[in-house]
Design brief:
The chain has 211 residues and is of the alpha/beta class. It is 23% helix and 28% strand. Strand 8 and strand 9 form a beta hairpin. The structure holds zinc ion. The site of zinc ion (ZN) has 6 residues, from loops.
Length: 211
């Protein structure tokens, strides 16, 4: 859930492919449509299929759930030929190589990563797939243990002071220019600070109930 009705920014740039966004809170914009997954009926899945998205953006649990459905042949989601965008919230489990394999074998499309906090985007991968660019205004730093800390863009934290918050991810902050031409720092994520297997299992089982 994004609190500020920000525009969804596709990692591949503008104009975005036709994208189904499974997080609520983004404002309406061309070529993206928000779907609100519910565990009480299948209607949202039918609507998702009807939209014929070229790309789907959602949490890791949501995308793994769709991958398992696709492998089982329902729904097929054959229109997804562009990409998947995994949207992480800070302190959520990070993508493992097994997750990546599972998404790849189901959809066979590039996977992009984005990091959000409740108020919006903090970092996003780009077409170079070589680290995550810090979102405009967001600041990132690594502590002595190698954990990445973030500060939301100025306009968001005005009322809350200048504190940095821990992201739950290990990584480094680098400043070399990116192949894509964007400037600013990039994050290289090494993995989660703790393997939050319990949290992950709960998220997956909650999604499994939809099936
Ligand atoms: Zn780049």
């Amino acid at each position: 859930m994004i609190a500020r009705r920000a525009a969804f920014r596709h990692p591949a740039g503008a104009p975005p492919p036709r994208t189904a966004v499974l997080l609520s809170g983004f404002r309406r914009q061309t070529n993206t449509k928000t779907f609100v997954p519910t565990s009480t009926n299948y209607r949202w899945l039918e609507k998702l299929q009807e939209y014929e998205p070229q790309s789907i953006a959602g949490s890791l649990g949501q995308l793994l759930f769709l991958a398992s459905l696709r492998m089982a042949g329902m729904p097929r989601l054959d229109s997804v030929g562009h990409s998947l965008v995994v949207t992480f919230h800070t302190e959520q489990p990070w993508l493992t190589s097994e997750d990546r394999d599972e998404l790849w074998s189901a959809f066979g499309v590039p996977i992009y990563e984005q990091i959000y906090c409740a108020s919006g985007l903090l970092a996003t991968e780009c077409i170079a797939h070589d680290g995550l660019h810090a979102a405009k205004g967001a600041q990132w730093t690594a502590d002595a243990n190698g954990e990445l800390w973030f500060r939301e863009p100025l306009s968001w934290w005005e009322e809350r002071g200048e504190a940095f918050a821990p992201s739950g991810l290990f990584g480094t902050v680098e400043a070399e220019p990116c192949e894509c031409g964007q400037t600013g720092v990039r994050l290289r994520i090494a993995g989660p600070v703790q393997r939050q297997t319990l949290l992950r299992t709960r998220a997956l089982s909650a999604w499994a109930q939809v099936a």
